[in-house]
């Protein structure tokens, strides 16, 4: 029986550290909960830190089929939030995880009022005009499939990390291995391709129009030298979300929680303490 059937639903791999109010971190496209490793010690001292692998990523199931749309990912995390009865919740999302956090915020505010306490967006995907070029390639079926299946996982991980970092000298062998392993695992490349092909939701314009309805305190963090999703997206989000604050991290690229944890984590903790 397929892991995606109603009698055997997808169970997302996750790790939970600490207690008190929950902080749920959602990683980016092609990444895993590994990308939040620097959050574990400092954040779990004061909060319940929940790290989750998206379907098809990390150690979560990677079933065949096309059920990897952005809606599919959002609904699985929404179910996770309800199944674990998370309240006073802070969502933290980087890149594609930021796009999912925006969608989940809208879902929670419309369907589960009172659960969502705050939102933290780190170099988040938000507008179709600013989708990274290497993700756009995946929507061209033949080219995208060739790019995914013919590129060794380690080469793929290394090239994406180099693009994501302002200072590529900070990239470690541990990181390259940590990113490559899930991609190289059975079903990993299929999941990556299917997620990339469907990364722009058909109702994206409707979702963007609802950013103004996100009324919880929102922290937006952006690497000033982000080459993947440009800093203007941070400015647009700050304008769209009423109760938001935008913080810049200089000499930093697309993954501040990895490249500049010493600057990113204090911003996150100060924001959470102010709620």
List keywords for this structure.
275 residues, alpha/beta, 7-stranded mixed β-sheet, 12 helices, disordered N terminus
Question: How would you describe this structure to a colleague?
Answer:
There is one protein chain. The chain is an alpha/beta fold. 43% of the residues lie in helices and 15% in strands. It has twelve helices and seven strands. The protein has helices spanning 40-44, 70-83, 96-111, 133-138, 141-150, 153-164, 173-184, 188-197, 204-209, 232-240, 256-259, 261-273, and strands at residues 14-17, 22-26, 48-52, 89-95, 116-124, 218-223, 244-249.
What is the fold's blueprint, element by element?
Elements: E1 14-17, E2 22-26, H1 40-44, E3 48-52, H2 70-83, E4 89-95, H3 96-111, E5 116-124, H4 133-138, H5 141-150, H6 153-164, H7 173-184, H8 188-197, H9 204-209, E6 218-223, H10 232-240, E7 244-249, H11 256-259, H12 261-273
Parallel strand pairs: 2-3, 2-4, 4-5, 5-6, 6-7
Antiparallel strand pairs: 1-3
Helix pairs in contact: 2-3, 5-8, 6-7
Estimated radius of gyration: 17 Å
Question: H/E series, N to C?
Answer: EEHEHEHEHHHHHHEHEHH
Helix content: 40-55%
| Strand arrangement across the biggest beta sheet | 1-3-2-4-5-6-7
Low-pLDDT sequence parts: 1-7
The helix/strand class is alpha/beta
- How many strands? 7
| Total of DSSP H or I helical runs spanning 4+ residues | 12
Strand content: 15-25%
Largest sheet: 7 strands, mixed
Distance, first to last CA: 45 Å
Q: What is the residue-averaged pLDDT?
A: 94
| Rough outline | globular
